[in-house]
Amino acid sequence: MTQTVNNILFAISDTGGGHRSAATAIAAALNNCNHIHCTLADLLKATGFPGLRKAPEIYDYCSRKQLWLNNLFFEQTNSVKRMNLLTRFVYQQAAPQFECELNRSRPDFLLAAHPLVIGLLVASRKATRASWPIFTVVTDLATLHASWATPGADLYLVPTEEAFTALVRHGIAASQIILTGFPVHPKFSCPSSSRQKIRSELGLDPERFSVLLTGGGVGAGGMSDWVREFLKDCPDKQLMVVTGRNQALYNQLQASKSRFDHLYIYGFVDNMEALMAASDVIISKAGPGTIMEAVAMRRPLIITEAVGIQETGNIDFVVNNRLGYFCRDPRQGCRIVNDLAANGFASAAGKLPPDNGSARIAGMICQQLPASTDQKKSIEPPAAGFYRGA
């Protein structure tokens, strides 16, 4: 029996950091499966279609400077019928470029981790008579755009019960949806080393109460106001600030370091798990990836705002599950930080979604892949322990 390498294509777009992070988390969990090759591709950019080929840049700009445009797009396109029409038009115009990108990776399995690529993949499979399975991995926790419910994928894997309900409301059959949990990278787990040791390794004061402030990949969320208030109201704490790809914010905050001995500024980082492990509390916008990584690390959250309509439900998710606080005002946020330093944080008491989402999804993918070139498998039911709609 001849062993074959199975090519898995993760279809994403770098609109924010969450879609790539989710795909990378699943790919890392697939390291335990033999004979698998993973590729990540920004398939919106690959279309070459005006607007889509610059989607990451447009998203970054709107998130930081013109959020109303982000929300207008959400509202005006939040219809499955409308998204199907738009997707059909884009595919008709961009099919050659799109097929070229797919042919480059020769996929055996497609995993869509961005809502706007689902319909393109479904159209491509139909047009080319391909047989590869398509799994959709939903990366929003509660407020789902209708594009997540684009029909035609084989399964829809969701992180929370709220997302499950939202997909059903948009028209996806419950029998096609599986609650797997959010795909958090395996490196985001309870650290084996102490907080003090991790801080020392990062060059921080090992004994000082530590706060991590992040605005996601685009450095959004009014971070400069939070830093300014923190320097005034929390002078005995140390603050780690991750500005992501926001170079202007990074440069601006660097100027504040001379006025505060315990301020540490980082740009785009690849060791967020270490920074979270070193922290006592995490202040962030309502990005789903950061929220679920903090949950995995068992760190309380202070959510500052929702950057876009798609993040609004995440605030209720955090508050209702007692994972942290929602606070727009930096001054009030500093009071919360000081209270946490003095009294600690009560553990979450809400009903949380399944953990180890990346491992669960990886296990499902491995079940579907052929073990050899002369043995093929169809879409099989998930293993016991997954919640699937009836």
Enter the CATH topology name of the largest domain.
Rossmann fold
| Strand order in space, largest sheet | 2-1-3-4-5-6-13
Q: In terms of structural class, how would the helical and strand content be classed?
A: alpha/beta
Helical residue percent?
Answer: 40-55%
Low-confidence stretches: 372-385
Q: State the distance separating the first and last CA atoms.
A: 38 Å
Along the chain, the helix and strand elements come as EHEHHHHEHEEHEHEHEHEHEHEHEHHE
CATH architectural name of the largest domain: 3-Layer(aba) Sandwich
- Determine the strand fraction and express it as a percent band: 5-15%
- Tell me the radius of gyration: 21 Å
Helix segment count?
15
Which descriptors apply to this entry?
390 residues; 15 helices; alpha/beta; Rossmann fold; 2 domains; globular; seven-stranded mixed beta sheet; six-stranded parallel beta sheet
